[in-house]
């Protein structure tokens, strides 16, 4: 309390500005504002403002069905481009569809069904111009592993199929609900690092599963982890079929070569895009001509002709496995959303148009709900197919319609052609697609840029490969959330110094040439002061003062008189934080020092005012900038020298 | 890109300081630093530095057993004070101990056992001078409800007793482990608001349970929620015993009166402290003289003479209920810790000494582990008893030893005196103690100060009263964590303006007199840029630019040229955040504007540098302060006027 008899400095120092308390807002208004910021940050209804009702109706229709917006502007040039793109992606969609359906332990024909109806729905409701709709490997694998835990797909295929439809229904419902309720930000919690690690892990797991096809094994583990698969593979060495393996590696080599050449010359994208269909045709011809199906090369066999049968009556809402289907739906739905939205956003960035995440979710959701009633399983916007669509020069979502029509023709007339397609070719197609998902360069980039993100990425990868897909996801999300909590729970406190020849104060760690101010300790708090960090900050501030006093004692410098807290980065404070500041004030007083606040923000000032803490600290000890606070303290130090001080002051501000 | 042909301003504007990239640190060193900050923020080993080994040993012993530190300084004056305080708290401890043991459905004698051994352990290991050790109502109730779900205490008392010892053991183990592993900050996640709501809810529930004793009912619900209790009470109106109720209300009135008078005159604290023992004595005398036990007034009955029997062999590690005991142990252990540490800290604040949270946890943990082996159940530092201890003038933890000795004498010689103590008096004692825990004034204070904290508090209260103790706790912790996540997921972005007659830029919301700078939009981001808010911030920044351009268009002002992002409050950035900034840079470029950064911190500069984003933005467009950034932009606006501009500029900086 040694400084209690000082004159208040604010009246003496020039240029000191008062820190304002923001004008009070009625509770309901501020509640409305913060709800709006939380759920409608993009203000989606802005365009509806001040419009006549007929225009509003039109805008509303265009909002829900973007096809009404771009449809009228559609022209022949667009059609030509979309036709080429649509046929190209259809040639990719057919073999990939069949492969991924097998990955999900579903009848191969479902892959074709799923490339027919959902793209039509998306073409009407989706706002991306480049997204190509279809099934994806990771969601297929997840469906197989989560439903497979409850029902064996080989022993009870009908029940398994119905559960798959039901979980697709719930996935769609969940996706649409997230969009309707403006909760799209849940997807943001799957950070970029999580997705890199998770995708690579899932790709590894999917490749491992293909060892069954490549080696021509009949029995295989139901586990997806590395250890189960390796055990399953190496305990059956006597059952490996070399015919199958040779065929597989030949096609894999061809596919990778095609991709490599497309990568070198982006204009040759069609080589890579057509390669899967070419492989299927060549493989089928080979089997048909050599009768290899009798020599250990498994083939697809009969595929039913005809369009999607309705499956609305197959949705098993009364099943004892309902909770499993809901859980599967939610997990696969979120994963599918994360991929689809990330893909849509990336291509929108390229072409400079805007995508509304919540609207996309509704489109994905509706597409899956309709799909689940028409014998389709979970679809989204896979990266590989959308990239081909983009490269093939698609102009609008009409390329999805073209693809759907091509698949329809296949379903109606061409299914018998797939009878002799060898399974091992499908495995090669999957492996080739998956290897592109293992983005090790990005992982190295993460390591260089942000160690914690790398940890999250590795957590997801190791979790998926050695545990299961869900474990990997939980590890990664938990680590990501832990990081957020740690940021708040252990905020950084920085000591500030004076940048020479200025009134600016910055961290002495970042600016090694910044000078300490004699007699004054300036601390910056880098996070909101909440219950989770209040005790920590109290301890840490005490320790800074201890350390500073020790340092001054050993170096024989003038003793500490003022502690300035720079609150510029303190975005908010709660009641625990207010108590903490009260305690810090008491501690600092007890040590005979003076507590000074610099630059508290609006929220902090409001709380300081309401809690009367502002009077305890003294309004005259709260400054707008650190510079002004230091100026005032220095003024006090020089005009009213404490009795126990004898050194001469060196002032460098 | 309209500004690409401008001259770089930094060479033209005076006084512009370079933003430094902090000196690189080896990975292991920075990892060590951040681990130290997370787990050893208080640097507990500081005093051991540079000391000879013998001194280190002594300090270490004093660190673990603080009694070796204060013991040698103990003197007669201390003893006198501690004797008075110890006897006062013993008089409170005996009736409270019996009451709370009954609340936990345990034999009443356990309450006395628990006030004998644990205080002795704490006196040696604890660092608080004011904490009085004993059982608490909330933990007792929690034990009863969590263990009671598995085993009925009336049907299988021995098993129930053994499970109670086992869960006490695990509670102690967990508490000590938290302390050893420096994870004490977990307790911080129970915020002040949570504890206010939770305690009030628990007190309400405990009072409701006392209706059984007050109304003299034999059968009572096992539920703790308001609805079960009300149904149980009002379906048995014909079994209410008026004798019991009258006795109960008389004593309750006496106890509340005693507390009221003590509150009015703090010097009369002993009236309130002695009131429970007085009630017990008066009640027992009354029953003994009137033989009321034969008229519907239930009494304690036989209490076994003798000290705590060992119970180490009763720990039921092999029991099928092991997981229940572990769960009970962890939940009750955390609750007990939160109360004990909060109490210890509050009194330490009063008397200006320091308490080490992690060390206290080890002390609490050891006290419960030892307790569980000597027929005690969960103990901590209850607020009521510690407050009496403090008011009675205790000087050291020796008052706990005095209390333990008093309880020992009671156990050895005085237990028969409690034979006729009516249960209804115990109920009155509990209700009187509990009413003090319902801190409605604090809840009103929370409402005024921070609406979200009030919501957390009410969530805890309603959850406890209408659901269960665990539900209330989960609601409150989930809401608190949600708040932290929302702070990061939806950070505030503020528009800054110029404070007249200065180079200072602050929020126009907080400072209504701050002026916009023509042609420049200045935004402050108030949180770290992480995956959870990257998409939000991208959208929000676009919207700010949209809104600003709309505003300028309607008001006919000069068009927007620069967007300055004030990064002063951005404590950290992850890889998703870097991608977001890259995208913002592209969007801003596309609109023909220029992106300028002001005051990025050390972590942000490091990441910007590593990701090469610094080159994309241009080092010359990164300034140390907003003022310098605006100065540079203004310089550009005036010297190189864009071609499409014809208005005259009005510059007010």
From TrEMBL, chains A, B:
<dbReference type="Pfam" id="PF00916">
    <property type="entry name" value="Sulfate_transp"/>
</dbReference>
<dbReference type="InterPro" id="IPR011547">
    <property type="entry name" value="SLC26A/SulP_dom"/>
</dbReference>
<keyword id="KW-0472">Membrane</keyword>
<protein>
    <recommendedName>
        <fullName>STAS domain-containing protein</fullName>
    </recommendedName>
</protein>
<dbReference type="GO" id="GO:0008271">
    <property type="term" value="F:secondary active sulfate transmembrane transporter activity"/>
</dbReference>
<feature type="transmembrane region" description="Helical">
    <location>
        <begin position="131"/>
        <end position="148"/>
    </location>
</feature>
<feature type="transmembrane region" description="Helical">
    <location>
        <begin position="423"/>
        <end position="440"/>
    </location>
</feature>
<keyword id="KW-1133">Transmembrane helix</keyword>
<dbReference type="InterPro" id="IPR036513">
    <property type="entry name" value="STAS_dom_sf"/>
</dbReference>
<dbReference type="InterPro" id="IPR002645">
    <property type="entry name" value="STAS_dom"/>
</dbReference>
<feature type="transmembrane region" description="Helical">
    <location>
        <begin position="193"/>
        <end position="211"/>
    </location>
</feature>
<keyword id="KW-0813">Transport</keyword>
<dbReference type="Pfam" id="PF01740">
    <property type="entry name" value="STAS"/>
</dbReference>
<dbReference type="InterPro" id="IPR018045">
    <property type="entry name" value="S04_transporter_CS"/>
</dbReference>
<dbReference type="GO" id="GO:0016020">
    <property type="term" value="C:membrane"/>
</dbReference>
<feature type="transmembrane region" description="Helical">
    <location>
        <begin position="330"/>
        <end position="350"/>
    </location>
</feature>
<feature type="transmembrane region" description="Helical">
    <location>
        <begin position="160"/>
        <end position="181"/>
    </location>
</feature>
<feature type="domain" description="STAS">
    <location>
        <begin position="510"/>
        <end position="633"/>
    </location>
</feature>
<feature type="transmembrane region" description="Helical">
    <location>
        <begin position="362"/>
        <end position="380"/>
    </location>
</feature>
<feature type="transmembrane region" description="Helical">
    <location>
        <begin position="460"/>
        <end position="486"/>
    </location>
</feature>
<keyword id="KW-0812">Transmembrane</keyword>
<dbReference type="InterPro" id="IPR001902">
    <property type="entry name" value="SLC26A/SulP_fam"/>
</dbReference>
<feature type="transmembrane region" description="Helical">
    <location>
        <begin position="400"/>
        <end position="418"/>
    </location>
</feature>
<feature type="transmembrane region" description="Helical">
    <location>
        <begin position="269"/>
        <end position="289"/>
    </location>
</feature>
<feature type="transmembrane region" description="Helical">
    <location>
        <begin position="240"/>
        <end position="257"/>
    </location>
</feature>
């Amino acid at each position: 309390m040694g400084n209690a008899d000082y004159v208040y400095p604010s009246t003496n120092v020039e240029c000191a500005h008062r820190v304002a308390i923001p004008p009070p807002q009625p509770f309901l208004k501020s509640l409305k504002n913060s709800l709006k910021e939380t759920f409608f940050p993009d203000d989606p209804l802005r365009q509806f403002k001040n419009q006549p009702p007929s225009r509003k109706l039109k805008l509303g229709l265009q909002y829900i069905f973007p096809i009404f917006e771009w449809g009228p502007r559609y022209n022949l040039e667009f059609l030509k481009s979309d036709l080429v793109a649509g046929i190209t992606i259809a040639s990719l969609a057919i073999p990939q569809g069949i492969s991924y359906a097998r990955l999900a332990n579903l009848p191969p024909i479902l892959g074709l069904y799923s490339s027919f109806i959902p793209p039509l729905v998306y073409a009407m409701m989706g706002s991306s111009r480049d997204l190509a709709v279809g099934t994806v490997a990771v969601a297929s694998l997840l469906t197989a592993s989560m439903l497979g835990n409850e029902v064996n797909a080989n022993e009870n295929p009908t029940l398994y199929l119905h559960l798959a439809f039901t979980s697709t229904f719930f996935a769609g419902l969940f996706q649409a609900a997230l969009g309707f309720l403006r909760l799209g930000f849940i997807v943001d919690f799957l950070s970029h690092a999580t997705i890199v690690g998770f995708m690579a892990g899932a790709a590894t797991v999917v490749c491992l599963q293909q060892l069954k096809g490549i080696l021509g094994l009949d029995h295989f583990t139901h586990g997806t982890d590395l250890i189960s698969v390796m055990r399953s593979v190496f305990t059956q060495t006597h059952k490996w079929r070399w015919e199958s393996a040779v065929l597989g590696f030949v096609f894999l080599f061809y596919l990778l070569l095609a991709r490599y050449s497309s990568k070198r010359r982006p204009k040759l994208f069609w080589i890579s895009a057509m390669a899967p269909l070419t492989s299927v045709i060549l493989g089928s011809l080979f089997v048909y001509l050599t009768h290899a199906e009798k020599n250990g090369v498994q083939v697809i066999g009969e595929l039913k002709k005809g369009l999607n049968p309705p499956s609305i009556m197959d949705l098993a809402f009364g099943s004892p496995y309902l909770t499993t289907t809901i859980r599967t739906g939610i997990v696969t739905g979120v994963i599918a959303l994360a991929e689809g939205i990330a893909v849509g956003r990336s291509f929108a960035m390229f072409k400079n148009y805007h995508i509304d995440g919540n609207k996309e979710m509704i489109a994905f959701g509706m597409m899956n709900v309709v799909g689940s009633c028409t014998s389709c399983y979970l679809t989204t916007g896979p990266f590989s197919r959308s990239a081909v669509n983009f490269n093939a020069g698609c102009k609008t979502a009409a390329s999805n319609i073209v693809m759907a029509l091509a698949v329809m023709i296949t379903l109606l007339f061409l299914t018998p052609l797939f009878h002799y397609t060898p399974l091992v070719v499908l495995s090669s197609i999957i492996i080739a697609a998956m290897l592109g998902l293992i983005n090790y360069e990005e992982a190295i980039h993460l390591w260089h840029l942000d160690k914690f993100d790398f940890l999250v990425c590795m957590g997801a990868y190791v979790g998926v490969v050695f545990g299961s897909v869900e474990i990997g996801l939980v590890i990664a999300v938990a680590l990501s959330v832990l990081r957020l909590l740690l940021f708040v729970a252990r905020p950084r406190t920085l000591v500030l110094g004076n940048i020479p020849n200025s009134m600016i104060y910055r961290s002495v760690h970042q600016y090694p040439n910044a000078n300490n101010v004699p007699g004054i300790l300036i601390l910056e708090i880098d996070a909101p002061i909440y219950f989770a960090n209040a005790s920590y900050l109290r301890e840490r501030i005490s320790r800074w003062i201890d350390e500073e006093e020790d340092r001054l004692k050993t170096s024989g410098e003038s003793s500490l008189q003022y502690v300035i807290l720079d609150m510029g980065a303190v975005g908010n404070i709660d009641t625990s934080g207010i108590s903490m500041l009260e305690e810090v004030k008491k501690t600092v007083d007890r040590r005979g020092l003076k507590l000074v606040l610099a630059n508290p923000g609006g929220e902090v000032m409001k709380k300081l005012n309401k809690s009367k803490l502002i009077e305890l600290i003294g309004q005259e000890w709260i400054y707008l900038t650190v510079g002004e606070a230091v100026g005032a303290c220095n003024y006090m130090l020089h005009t009213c020298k404490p009795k126990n001080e004898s050194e001469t002051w060196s002032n460098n501000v």
